[in-house]
């Protein structure tokens, strides 16, 4: 067992889950290519090009911009404990972007045959996506506020001095 962990880098359960996920992905690809091979191939190439050439530079720039906004803090703030805030922006932005990526034809009302084929209206998706995005950011803000409150609780001066200045969570 120790030799497997040294060779592979993780336990056997991780390897089993990884093999199962590759098997499921392979099965899905075989089924998709059997029905619409050209459309699936074009989609994969387009998704790779769109992600690597357009989206990756855009969200990397947005992440660097968010980091640089609060990078310059006052010098006297170094004696207070800090909470890492960037993931409280990254996670809801990622989830909102993922939802937009998956549902953008309906959110932007670009899915022409959808209402006719299903009998459902596509007019509710933009509002629902915006509401979900708002809830994600609000929940992240509440979690961030709770972490700040836990770190800066009054009367914890002894525990803060023992942990050292600028302790990050």
Task: Describe the model.
- The chain is mostly helical.
- The chain contains seven helices and no strands.
- It has helices spanning 2-8, 12-35, 37-69, 87-107, 113-118, 125-151, 157-163.
- It is extended and about 65 Å long.
Structure classification = mainly alpha
Largest sheet: none
End-to-end separation in angstroms reads: 33 Å
Mean pLDDT: 81
Helix content: over 70%
**Stretches where pLDDT falls below 50 for ≥5 residues?**
158-164
Task: Write a short abstract of this structure.
This protein has 169 residues and is an all-alpha fold. The chain is built from seven helices and no strands. 74% of the residues lie in helices and 0% in strands.
Spell out the key features of this protein.
74% helix, 169 residues, single chain, mainly alpha
SSE layout:
Elements: H1 2-8, H2 12-35, H3 37-69, H4 87-107, H5 113-118, H6 125-151, H7 157-163
Helix pairs in contact: 2-3, 4-6
